[in-house]
């Protein structure tokens, strides 16, 4: 049972939302892996590797790009597609750059895009 806000028609059409992810620049050098810290202590290897990918969350759906191994300026040129009713009840898109790790992925940066600021009133 879905309660719709005022102004939203009860019968809505399906729409596709295309999010294009091009690249990232200036990612921080970071190392969150326990094994990497052990390597650093034992053999002096000091590689602050980042394996970034982008995760996009919209209207309860998640999509992500491929993982770019050992890159501080990753280039994806990938597209994430969401299918949702139009107009969507969700008013923002969450875009997060994450560092892939075997144990636990770490968020590097998060940004929210407000759909009201980038869409036409009609």
Automatic annotation (TrEMBL):
GO BP annotations listed: plasma membrane organization; synaptic vesicle priming
Domain C2, chain residue ranges per copy: 1-122
Topology with respect to the bilayer: Single-pass membrane protein
Location within or outside the cell: Membrane
A cellular component term, taken from the record's GO annotations: synaptic vesicle membrane
Chief place of localization: membrane
TM helices/strands, residue ranges: none
SMART domains per UniProt: C2
GO molecular function, one term: AP-2 adaptor complex binding
Source organism, top-level taxon: Eukaryota
Pfam families in the record: C2
Keywords of this entry: Membrane, Repeat, Transmembrane, Transmembrane helix
Protein name in UniProt: OTOF protein
Species for this entry: Probosciger aterrimus (Palm cockatoo)
């Amino acid at each position: 049972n879905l309660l719709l806000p005022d102004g939203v028609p009860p019968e809505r059409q399906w729409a596709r939302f295309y999010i294009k992810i091009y690249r990232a620049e200036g990612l921080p050098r970071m190392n969150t892996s326990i094994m990497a810290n052990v390597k650093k202590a034992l053999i002096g290897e000091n590689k602050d590797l980042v394996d970034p990918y982008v995760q996009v969350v919209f209207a309860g759906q998640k999509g992500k790009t491929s993982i770019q191994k050992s890159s501080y300026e990753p280039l994806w040129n990938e597209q994430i597609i969401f299918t949702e009713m139009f107009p969507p009840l969700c008013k923002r898109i969450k875009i997060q750059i994450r560092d892939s790790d075997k144990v636990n992925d770490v968020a590097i940066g998060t940004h929210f895009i407000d759909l009201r600021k980038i869409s036409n009133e009609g």
